[in-house]
Amino acid sequence: MQRNDRSYKDLKQKQKSAIADKTYKMYLKFYLENQRMPDATEMNDICKSLFTAVQSLAPKTEYEEFYKIVEKREKSYEERILRDIQSGITLETLMVKKHKKTPEVSLN
Fold first, then answer.
1. For a FRET experiment, which of 8, 18, 49, 93 has its CA 20 to 30 Å from that of 29?
2. Is 13 exposed, middle or buried (0-12, 13-18, 19+ CB in 10 A)?
3. Helices and strands per DSSP (H, E), number in the chain
């Protein structure tokens, strides 16, 4: 059952954490592809794509509220991304990890 009266701050910590993980992975993927952090327009695109997931969990969340949350987190992302790259993460390993989570489906 979906609650239509929830905002982002009403979500459970586990839900917020899952959204934060998705956000970080999108930033990491962007950095690996472009060798830089996203500019304001690109950040807006990332937020818009994530916002649909947030809206399904917390319909009362305003886009501006979510954008500010991502903007606040972004400050620590570059440092974390650089650490991850130093420890050997690449676009290929990022994509492999993503695919392992989804069960294989037989097309027969």
1. 8
2. exposed
3. 4, 0
